[in-house]
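Target protein
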Amino acid sequence: MVDVDEAFLLRHADDNLVLAQRLGEYVTCAPDLEQDIAVANFALDHIGVAMHLYDYAADIAVGHADRDRYAMTRTEREFRNVLLVEQPHPDYAFVIARGLLFDLYQVRLWGRLSVHPDLRLAGIAGRAGKEARYHLRYSRSWMIRLGDGTEESHQRMQTAIDDLWRFTAELFESFPGEDDNAAFDEYVDELGSILDEATLTIPADPYQASGGRDGWHTEHLGHLLADLQWLARTHPDATW
């Protein structure tokens, strides 16, 4: 079973914080009010998970740390999120595609960690897992609806999958308690079943990008963090 240390907790907290920021950017841009509210709620869910993980990391860190310092003062080279969550979304198809790719992973991740002997981590994972399963139902239903919809919606969904597929293997680097390749293969099988129902296909290109867990990110993260952190950096001693 995976060791629970500051680095482990920060990786998964960063995943959720960065994705929450991306989803927050899309509020008021969804196709209708109901989906707009859903996107906002998903962002809040991910922020909640990130806060719990940052708090735990701060409690076991050497030296002074708190969740605000983790979120608001680190540079992009210090963030350890996967590359998938920092990618921008040109349209709603990308929101759904990234959601499905990440939700499938998080359902597996939280399921594994919910039985961890560390009770605090298991509690966080148990709550996060319930949210992830709901997120997956949503992204799966929209993937099928749009993929097997009109010619345009089908093409938009396939374009999104084609663009984001190369960021999926990184999700399973050091997957807790399981061989990385075996975990990824199971993930691909489940994803393939959903895409078959949506009349979509997994890209044939074998290339997979990585580096996020080591602090090597795409250009997009720097811009995202500039928006996220500017107030805290401009007024570092402000209190609310």
Remarks:
- Residues 119-147 form the longest helix (29 residues).
- The chain has eight helices and no strands.
